[in-house]
């Protein structure tokens, strides 16, 4: 009989590619993870992982078991959801990870809605960049992730996750008030090819949006200044340090003295925001109201 706990470990090793990283995500020691993998190999009668200089990879037998693991763990999530519903599950804590703007736009309003509609549900909020919340969700550190689409992200049909689209928002061009395009109604990105740029660090999903938009306009942006805080990005633009693309919602409440904000000419670069839960958990009586409240906040 295969233990579900060991399937969790197999999936964590497949996700993180090393025993050490998987152990850290699961709050176990590397030796404990190795022991559980060895026990799983005994249970199945197959070698499931191979260790190399670049980490751990699954064998063909391991890949077969992993494909079933997604379905098994999703079904266990559904079982927990039904048991919680049986017990009426109207009170408890749900942990939500979201990037800062997502907290402002949908998580905080959802919290207010839940206080009225489901007062027994308590939200615990964790600030996490758009590319960090999904690994936290898969590692069971949080129950709901508010994330953005980015290169390398698990796709919408990933068997481990259920996605709920929330909203999409354009990026606007931010230029100094003395910039040659400050009086334009719309800013053609190609006209900014020779300007210095200010933007998020590589790894931040918004960095990918900026770079892909510039590449589509025919150039690589010369990123001279980097910050994941869009208030800092705007401040640098105000100091005439360069130009930037900033998500429209991130400009709300930001001091725009010294800059001009203009829409991008043509198809604007866009970030798409969604909520995700581990597949099977979407019907959980604590999580379902949270997803509903997030969706209502996004539509509002």
What features would you describe in this structure?
The structure is a single chain. By secondary structure, the chain is of the alpha/beta class. The protein folds into 3 domains: 4-83, Winged helix-like DNA-binding domain superfamily/Winged helix DNA-binding domain (Arc Repressor Mutant, subunit A, Orthogonal Bundle), CATH 1.10.10; 89-165 and 273-299, D-Maltodextrin-Binding Protein, domain 2 (3-Layer(aba) Sandwich), CATH 3.40.190; 168-271, Periplasmic binding protein-like II (D-Maltodextrin-Binding Protein, domain 2). The chain has 9 helices and 11 strands. It has helices at residues 4-16, 19-26, 30-44, 60-86, 100-117, 133-138, 205-216, 230-238, 287-299; strands at 49-52, 55-58, 92-98, 121-127, 144-148, 161-176, 196-199, 222-226, 244-247, 259-262, 270-278. Strands 3, 4, 5, 6, 9, 10 and 11 form a 7-stranded mixed sheet that branches. Strands 1-2 form a two-stranded antiparallel ribbon. It has a two-stranded parallel ribbon with strand order 7-8. Helix 5 crosses helix 9 (287-299). The chain is globular and about 70 Å long. The model has no long low-confidence stretch (mean pLDDT 90).
């Amino acid at each position: 009989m295969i233990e579900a706990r060991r399937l969790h470990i197999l999936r964590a090793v497949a996700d993180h590619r090393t025993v050490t990283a998987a152990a850290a995500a699961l709050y176990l020691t590397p030796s404990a993870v190795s022991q559980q993998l060895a026990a799983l190999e005994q249970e199945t009668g197959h070698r499931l992982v191979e260790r190399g200089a670049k980490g751990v990879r699954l064998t063909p037998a391991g890949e077969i078991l992993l494909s079933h693991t997604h379905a098994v763990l999703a079904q266990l999530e559904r079982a927990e959801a039904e048991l919680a519903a049986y017990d009426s599950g109207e009170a408890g804590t749900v942990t939500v990870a979201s990037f800062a703007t997502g907290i402002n736009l949908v998580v905080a309003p959802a919290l207010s809605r839940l206080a009225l509609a489901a007062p027994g549900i308590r939200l615990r909020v964790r600030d996490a960049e758009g590319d960090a919340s999904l690994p936290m969700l898969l590692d069971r550190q949080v129950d709901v992730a508010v994330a953005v689409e980015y290169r390398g992200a698990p796709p919408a049909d990933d068997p481990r996750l259920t996605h709920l689209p929330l909203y999409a928002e354009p990026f606007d061009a931010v230029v100094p008030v003395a910039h040659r395009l400050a009086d334009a109604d719309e800013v053609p990105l190609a006209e900014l090819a020779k300007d210095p740029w200010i933007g998020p660090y590589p790894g931040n999903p918004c960095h990918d949006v900026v770079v892909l938009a510039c590449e589509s306009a025919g150039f690589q942006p010369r990123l001279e200044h980097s910050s994941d805080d869009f208030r800092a990005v705007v401040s640098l633009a105000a100091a005439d340090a360069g130009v930037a693309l900033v998500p429209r919602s991130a400009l709300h409440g930001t001091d725009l003295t010294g800059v001009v904000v203009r829409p991008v000419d043509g198809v604007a670069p866009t970030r798409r925001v969604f909520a995700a839960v581990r597949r099977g958990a979407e019907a959980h009586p604590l999580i379902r109201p949270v997803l509903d409240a997030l969706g209502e906040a996004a539509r509002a």
